[in-house]
Structures are given as C-alpha cells and as structure tokens.
Amino acid sequence: MKKHLKKIVIALIVVFILIQFFPTHRNENKELLPTDFSKVYDVPENIHVMLKNACYDCHSNNTKYPWYNKIQPVSWFLENHIAEAKEELNFSEFGNYSAKKQNHKLDEIIDEVKEGEMPLKGYKLMHSEAKFSDEERKQFLSYFQKIMK
Q1: Which of 70, 83, 132, 145 could serve as a FRET partner for 139 with CA atoms 20 to 30 Å apart?
Q2: What is the pLDDT of residues 3-57, one digit of tens each?
Q3: Residue numbers of the domain that contains 77
Q4: How many other C-beta atoms can be found within 10 angstroms of the C-beta atom of residue 149?
Q5: Residues 62/30, Cβ–Cβ less than 8 Å
C-alpha cells in the first residue's frame, strides 16, 4: 500500500512540474485605449482609483498579476476568470459599446456593487485595496447613478 502511495505522490509531483511549462496568455496592455471608460467619461480621481483597485484587474485589458499567477494551475484559473469577466464588462472597451449597452452596463455596475456582489469576496480577500468603506461605496454608486443616461 505504501509503495503505491509513494508512486502516486511521485507521479503527482512530476505532473505538477510538467504543467509549469504550459504558460498562459497574460492580459497585459500598458496602453490606455481611447475607448477606456476613463476616456469616455469624466471620472473623478477618487472613483478612478476605486475602479483601478477593485475592477480593472478582471474587467479591463490590463491585469496587475499577483506573484502566484506564475504557478499552474492557478494561472489557468485566473486567465479563465479574467476572460469571463471581460466578456461581461470590459472597461478598456467601454467606448465601443452602444449607448444602450453602456447604460445597461452602468445599471449592472450599480446593482452589483449595491448588492455587494462586486468586487468578488475572494478578490477582496486577496486585495485589501479593493474593499470599499461605506463612504467609498456611496461615492462610487453616486457617481455611476449620476452618469446614467
């Protein structure tokens, strides 16, 4: 029994080492596109900081990766999560959305933040700067409600 367990552990270690050689595409673009939300709307500095800290890692074309993103299978999980998040809302491409879609996305942002669904709890756990105080949440929601068309 111990002999089989030893073989299984060795096989798992070998697989873990081998998967490290399969890199993922990184969501990094240092250029701020003209379609970026902050270029389309007049965003106050405090709101811009909140967006960068709480939203842009998953919902833009430029993720600031944590150190553990270089480890597989964590990297695969993060890249999949980012791709799904960008499909739902991409602040870097916001200017490409129709006025109707922009307004719908603004409404969704308000609902998600109001209900505490965004930023995700797991993200806030790893990124303390993404946690909004009650006052920050009020400012954030007030800004988005103000720009709704």
Answers
A1: 83
A2: 788 888 887 877 777 777 777 777 777 788 899 999 999 999 999 999 999 999 9
A3: 26-147
A4: 7
A5: yes
Residue 136: is it exposed, middle or buried by C-beta count within 10 angstroms (0-12/13-18/19+)?
middle
The CB density around residue 71, as the number of other CB atoms within 10 Å, is 11
Is 18 inside a domain boundary? no
Domain presence at residue 119: yes
Q: What is the DSSP string of 98-117?
A: -HHHHHHHHHHHHHHHHTT-
pTM for the full predicted model: 0.81
Q: Which residues contact 38 (CB under 8 A, 6 or more apart)?
A: 32, 48, 51, 91
Question: What's the total number of domains in the chain?
Answer: 1
Quick check: is 5 in a domain? no
Please say whether the beta carbons of 133 and 125 come within 8 A: no
Nearest of 119, 102, 109, 105 to residue 40 by alpha carbon: 102
Residue 21 carries which DSSP code?
T
Residue 2 belongs to some domain of the structure: no
Q: What one-character-per-residue DSSP string does 58-71 give?
A: TSSS-----GGGGS
